[in-house]
């Protein structure tokens, strides 16, 4: 078997990539996106990995997942979790997914299509800005390490380290009905780097309305709001200015780096 087929695909972003790799006994890993360093506009290097792809997960990585043992997904994007599970289901790969949010959950997909997936449990709905989430405590690493060599037979979600449930297939799950909206790119953030200006626009391909006045209330202590009207907000975070429109579109000024714009979109809008 080739090294690629023996390796896991790790989708990172929480800054725990190397710690997890060590705790799991240093399995072969190919890494897509690690912890993002905003000031340097680069991903944290992962010299310990078999291969590194300095990008966020897109449907273009399906072939990489197909040629792997399975997926480990630890990022700040809920949508990316659904893309990963769409890939795991179609290629029948096991997947460990840390579901981000106010309180983390750990999801295991067995790789067997007769078992439930994340979408069977809950359809995707855009989450809160990741900036509002507490950093997940590290109990999930211990939990994953304790399960790694003896995973459950069926798909399971852990709400806490001691509270779990087995997931069965939901008849209304589009992924299980043979539709693959995440893998086919129907539900994704569309990134456009401006030719003339120093900016990147992110437009969700799906409904992602934002209540701008509620947004202002919850975010005003975390970001600087420079301008606001009925259609958009202009906010400053670190040394970037972002325009956030009520339809969910966001323009990040001061960069031509798509990964910076995607990082800020996760943090400031939520996806
Ligand atoms: Zn499903």
Characterize the structure shown.
The protein has eight helices and 16 strands. The chain has 271 residues and is α+β, with helices and mostly antiparallel strands. The chain folds into two domains: 164 residues, NAD(P)-binding Rossmann-like Domain (Rossmann fold, 3-Layer(aba) Sandwich); 80 residues, 2-Layer Sandwich (TATA-Binding Protein). An eight-stranded mixed sheet has the order 5-2-1-6-7-8-9-10. It is globular. The two termini are 37 Å apart. The model has no long low-confidence stretch (mean pLDDT 95). Bound molecules: zinc ion. The site of zinc ion (ZN) has 9 residues, from helix 5.
Summarize the structure.
This protein has 271 residues and is α+β, with helices and mostly antiparallel strands.
CATH architecture of the largest domain: 3-Layer(aba) Sandwich
Secondary structure: helix percent: 10-25%
Name the strands of the widest sheet in spatial order: 5-2-1-6-7-8-9-10
Structural class by sheet pairing and helices: alpha+beta
The CATH topology of the largest domain is Rossmann fold
Instruction: Please work out how many helical segments DSSP would assign.
Output: 8
Count of strand segments:
16
What Rg do the Cα atoms give?
18 Å
Shape: globular
Strand content: 25-35%
Summarize model confidence as the mean pLDDT.
Answer: 95
């Amino acid at each position: 078997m080739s090294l690629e087929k023996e390796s896991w695909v790790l989708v990172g972003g929480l800054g725990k990539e190397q710690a997890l790799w060590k705790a799991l006994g240093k399995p072969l890993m190919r890494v897509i996106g690690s912890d993002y360093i905003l000031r340097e506009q680069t991903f944290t290097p992962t010299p310990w990995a078999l291969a590194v792809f300095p990008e966020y997960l897109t449907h273009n990585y399906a072939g990489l997942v197909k040629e792997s043992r399975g997926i480990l997904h630890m990022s700040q994007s809920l949508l990316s979790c659904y893309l990963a599970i769409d890939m795991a289901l179609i290629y029948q790969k096991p997947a460990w997914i840390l579901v981000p949010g106010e309180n983390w959950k750990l999801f295991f997909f067995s790789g067997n299509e007769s078992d439930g997936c994340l979408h069977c449990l809950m359809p995707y709905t855009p989450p809160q800005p990741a900036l509002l989430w507490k950093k997940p405590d590290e109990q999930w690493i211990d939990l994953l390490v304790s399960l790694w060599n003896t995973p459950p037979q069926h798909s399971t979600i852990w709400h806490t380290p001691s509270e779990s449930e087995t997931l069965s297939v939901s008849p209304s799950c589009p992924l299980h009905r043979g539709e693959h909206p995440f893998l086919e790119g129907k539900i994704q953030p569309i990134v456009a780097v401006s030719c003339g200006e120093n900016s990147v626009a992110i437009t969700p391909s799906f409904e992602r309305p934002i209540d701008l006045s509620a947004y202002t209330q919850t975010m005003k202590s975390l970001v600087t709001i420079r301008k606001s009207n009925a259609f958009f907000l202009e906010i400053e975070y670190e040394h970037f200015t972002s325009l956030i429109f009520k339809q969910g579109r966001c323009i990040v000024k001061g960069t031509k780096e798509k990964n910076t714009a995607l990082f800020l979109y996760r943090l400031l809008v939520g996806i």
